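residues and backbone:
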Amino acid sequence: MLQERPEESARFVVERLFPKAEAARPEIALVLGSGLGYLADRLEDARVLPYREIPHFAVPTAPGHGGNLVSGRLAGRPVLCMQGRFHYYEGHSMRTLTYPIRVMRALGIKKLILTNAAGGLDPEFSPGDLMLINDHINFMGANPLIGPNEGPGPRFQDMSFAYDLGMRETILKAARELGIPLSEGVYLGYSGPSFETRAEIRLFRSFGCRAVGMSTVPEVIVANHAGIRVAAISCITNLAAGILEQPISGEEVIQAAAAAAEKFVGLLTRSVALL
């Protein structure tokens, strides 16, 4: 049955990444977005499992998404990292792109930090700035919970507190300790793959959103449904259409994410230590 597939994938992951019974199993997972996968290369005692080898996993096609599940230690704590994710614009169903979150639940993950590269809607943003997401708007035209309710959450999942307050406070504390500017804001999930028009950006700004991107929202919905506590951070890689008088490119997004590498790694490392 469909609900048994995450358990099958989880058993395979355990065999490959945690072969010893006494191995510390992580309760914290990180999803590393466009151009942000370098954090997985910093893990101690890292073990790498390509997505293509995991039963029922898809393979990412987006630039800047390595396609590996990596276990190891960050700040001395066991973590599991997704080095790259799947997107709706790649042609995946909502079920496929959120399937790894269901596998995380089967693995015993309790806390999840999602990251993404996003366009800034606030003219005060500069490329390389970081924004802690405190809420979102789903503008993708689909919801990953459509279809049979596979639990453990209810048929109608409450999303009033989608982004865990305690985790957000911990990440803000980490940013203060490191002297890293970190603001909060609402993220709008957009299907892509085309970038937004000027009119769309004006609409999104009128909604009160500060960043827009093509991921994260479906994963947050499924994580909430699965009982996993969630936080999410956007790396602002460009200012959205109409804010600056210049075209936007995918290469620009990857380059800006890479430029923010040390700041981003530092924030996530300290946050994991404090969680």
